[in-house]
Fold:
Amino acid sequence: GEPPYSVPAPALANAIYNAIGVRFTELPINIRSVLDGKNRVSKA
Structure:
């Protein structure tokens, strides 16, 4: 059969990176990790 893979997860990670400049390489991506990443970028 076909190997399972998810296209939406990498697309979502890239959309977040384009929006706030934070790269996510681990799943799941949740609101807490997005906000923490955004805060790290804004403090830098």
Notes: The chain has one domain: 8-43. The radius of gyration is 12 Å.
